[in-house]
Design goal:
The chain is α/β, with parallel strands linked by helices. Helices cover 31% and strands 24% of the residues. Homodimer.
Length: 312
């Protein structure tokens, strides 16, 4: 099935980082030093990643965030603009350095990430309120948790009160008031984040589906991504599983979750049902792990035309 999207207003509020991708055979254990095989600098940050992923699939995307007045910030701004993302609401700070992430990518493709927020933590409630309070509010607002939790809380509440649909990717996991997560449609988490939220382990696909069903009683809808197993979803009417296609060789999992969220947002903004949006999200995430880096690995609509699939 060919992916059909139409530009729709999507506002992404979140982080922008410069990623330092360090390739190692196996990551170091505590107290251990290992030699890296290579290092690459590339645009990243969950907010910027999701904005780029959505823009590449045809979304009409505006990004709200902060960068430092430095070379890294200038690079991130150029890359976002080149991808077709509206950066008119990105603030530049002389008093903060641009956020950065050190990403260790093992030969298996798995990664571990350390983030230094920098200017990302300079985003204020008043700035977000100003953007959301415009005469023509966005139809869909996407957030993550690499900005301060108080900003996430304020943005979710104001966006929902303005009538926008809120997609919150609770990554990395932070504890938010129940009244905030209740407004999310959907609340998107990976397996580890869902475990942190509910306080129990997810040992199987059946566990994930059960927890998604339970969570939908407290949120408008929920999605739990499960890597190679795909994703589970639940909304007020139904729930289901979308399996991921097998990948012969995983190159790099960095940013795959952001590819999922960006694709999901585009389909939701175009009026798709949640199960359909999860289908394209799984396809986008699967595509991303076959290539290096985060934003550089994201699909265009034509890349996914044979990969969209939905399961019950």
């Amino acid at each position: 099935m060919t992916v059909q999207v139409r530009p729709s207003p999507i506002l992404v509020i979140g982080s922008a980082n410069l990623d330092y991708l360090i390739r190692v055979d196996v990551g170091p254990r505590p107290g251990e030093t290992v030699l890296a095989r290579s290092m690459l600098k590339a645009p990243g940050g969950k907010g910027a990643n999701q904005a780029v992923a959505a823009a590449r699939l045809g979304g009409d995307v505006r990004f709200v965030g902060c960068v430092g007045d430095d070379n890294d910030g200038a690079l991130l701004m150029r890359e976002l603009r080149a991808e077709g993302v509206d950066i008119g609401d990105v603030e530049i700070f002389t008093s903060h350095h641009t956020g950065m992430a050190v990403v260790a990518v093992e030969r298996s493709g798995q990664n571990s990430i350390m983030v230094v927020p920098g200017a990302n933590f300079a985003l204020t409630e008043s700035r977000v309120a100003h953007v959301l309070g415009r005469a023509e509010p966005p139809s869909l607002v996407v957030l993550q948790a690499e900005i301060q939790a108080s900003i996430v809380t304020a943005a979710v509440e104001q966006a929902a009160s303005s009538g926008a649909r809120v997609v919150l990717n609770l990554a990395p996991f932070v504890a938010l008031p129940a009244r905030v997560t209740a407004l999310c449609d959907p609340l998107v988490m990976n397996e580890a984040e869902a475990e942190a939220l509910v306080g129990e382990s997810i040992a199987s696909l059946a566990d994930a589906r059960r927890i998604a069903r339970e969570l939908r009683r407290a949120v408008r809808s929920v999605v739990i991504t499960l890597g190679v197993q795909g994703a589970v979803w639940a909304d007020p009417d139904d729930d289901g599983v979308v399996p991921a296609e097998a990948v012969p060789h995983v190159v790099d999992t960095t940013g795959a979750g952001d590819a999922f969220v960006g694709a999901l947002a585009v389909r939701l903004a175009a009026g798709a049902e949640l199960r359909q949006a999860v289908g394209i999200g799984v396809a986008a995430g699967t595509f991303a792990v076959t290539r290096d880096g985060a934003q550089s690995s994201y699909a265009m609509a034509s890349d996914l035309e044979m990969n969209e699939h939905v399961a019950g």
